[in-house]
Amino acid sequence: MTTAADLSGSSVAWWKEPTREQWLAWVAAWLGWTLDAFDFTMFLLIMVPISQEFHVPLTDVAFVLSVTLWLRLVGAVGSGWLADRVGRKIPLMISILWYSLSNFAAGFSPTFTYLFLFRALLGIGMGGEWPAGGALAMETWPVRSRGFMGGVLQGSWGLGFMLSSGVYGLFYASIGWRGMLWIGVLPALSVFFVRKFVKEPPIWLENRRRQRLEQREVRAPLIAIFQKQILANTLTACVWLGGGFIAYYSVNALFATHLQKDLHLTPGLVATPIFFANLGTFLASCGWGWWADRIGRRWSTIIPALIALPLAPLYLLSTDFLWIAVGFIAQGMCAGGGMQGQMVAYLNERFPTEIRATASAF
Predict the structure, then answer these.
(1) Contact between 160 and 36 (Cβ < 8 Å)
(2) Residue ranges in the chain assigned as alpha helix (H)
(3) CA-based radius of gyration for the chain
(4) Buried residues in 311-339 as b, exposed as e (16+ CB within 10 A)
(5) Grouped pLDDT means (10 residues each) for the chain, 362 residues
(6) Which of 96, 109, 297, 307 has the largest CB neighbor count within 10 A?
(7) In terms of Cα–Cα distance, which of 200, 172, 189, 40 is closest to 106?
(8) Predicted local distance difference test score (pLDDT) of residue 313
(9) Distance between CA atoms of 43 and 38, rounded to whole angstroms?
(10) What pLDDT is attached to residue 6?
(11) Distance of alpha carbon 354 from alpha carbon 339, whole angstroms
(12) Separation between Cα atoms, residue 295 and residue 180, nearest integer Å
């Protein structure tokens, strides 16, 4: 088999190495993840007006966000299990349709309870996209540039957030929070692309064939990730991902609410630092992904995480808009793009094919 060392000396440019099918698989995962971010993060921008329209405390609206993220675990594990059992495409398409339609339905909410229900359900589809899409992209992509393209893929969450903040800054005054949720149905159109152009990864198909032939098919991948030989990988991955989620959501989840409620900024001023911070997230994830193919996945996670540590108090304790914007952008590049960028590549590389999606999902 061709090794990473062999490929590093290849005269072929890295972007020419992947086949058409490999590019299509990566684009499918990229579309699902970027549009997933678009649908989820738009809620972070409209929590204050939702609180005002339904006359509920802001803490109640924030609890919707919490439940959405809790149900993300349910959707992820279900999608990961399905991806390991029947293939990567089907759960990817289901998840995209799920979160798109949930967002659309939430836009018609006559009561806060109705909104709570459909935004909570969105978490199932939101969680379902990542393991199926990540496995699809990483199993097909050549090893030489997998760290970089994994970083581009993971960092594209920032592109989705940029898109939602751009829509908020430009159109919120015209369409309101309901219009923003209705726009969230558009990602469903990407399912047609996945259905027509994307194929199952050859490595998954071959592994499935051999397991059936040798009668050693894994029928319970969720149980398998807690077996002795896998358990250490599972637990350390959980600690790492848990730390990443805390670092990201503790700052990003209520940052727009802070600017709206505490600093009373206009939609345009709220959207500006969020837009550029997410551009920084994307660029940093790409950059550290490039380094990951040279110095390894671990150091490409550790270094930006260490840089991120002192940044938050420097701007969250300020009321100066320029300082807040600069600090938030720097934080996005380190805690958002830097330390998070290797999630897709590293997790998919450290688990075997038959339990890969379930493990990264959990």
Answers:
(1) yes
(2) 4-8, 20-45, 47-54, 58-86, 89-106, 112-140, 146-183, 190-197, 202-213, 221-224, 228-252, 255-257, 267-295, 297-308, 311-316, 321-331, 343-349, 356-361
(3) 20
(4) bbeebeeeeeeeebbbbbbbbbbbbbbbb
(5) 47 89 94 92 93 94 92 93 93 95 95 95 92 93 94 93 92 94 93 94 91 87 93 94 86 87 89 90 93 93 89 81 88 83 90 93 92
(6) 96
(7) 40
(8) 81
(9) 9
(10) 45
(11) 27
(12) 41
pLDDT of residue 150: 95
Q: Which tokens sit at 17?
A: 């190495």
End-to-end CA distance of the chain: 30
Q: What is d(CA 191, CA 195) in angstroms, rounded to the nearest whole number?
A: 6
Residues in CB range of 92: below 8 A, 6 or more apart: 28, 29, 32, 79, 83, 129, 132, 133, 136, 194
Residue that the structure tokens 């398409």 belong to? 93
Residues 206 and 20: their CA atoms lie apart, in Å, by 19
Question: Would you call 231 helix, strand, or coil by DSSP?
Answer: helix
Structure tokens at 70: 């809790």
- Between CA 251 and CA 191, with CA 287 as vertex, the angle to 5 degrees is 75
What are the distances in angstroms from CA 101 to CA 94, 138, 146, 214?
Answer: 11, 27, 32, 41
- Rounded CA separation 232/345 (Å): 18
Q: 């581009």: which residue's tokens?
A: 152
Cα–Cα dist 238/240, whole Å: 5
What tokens were used for 352?
A: 């075997």
CA–CA distance, 155 with 56 (Å, rounded to integer): 34
Residues in the chain: 362
Whole-prediction pTM: 0.89
Spatial contact of 58 and 51, defined as CB atoms under 8 Å apart: yes
- 8 A C-beta contact, residue 76 and residue 133: no
What is the pLDDT at residue 331? Answer: 85
315, 335 in Cβ contact below 8 A? no
Q: How far apart are CA 44 and CA 271, in angstroms?
A: 11
Quote the DSSP letter at residue 338.
I
CA distance 263 to 244: 27
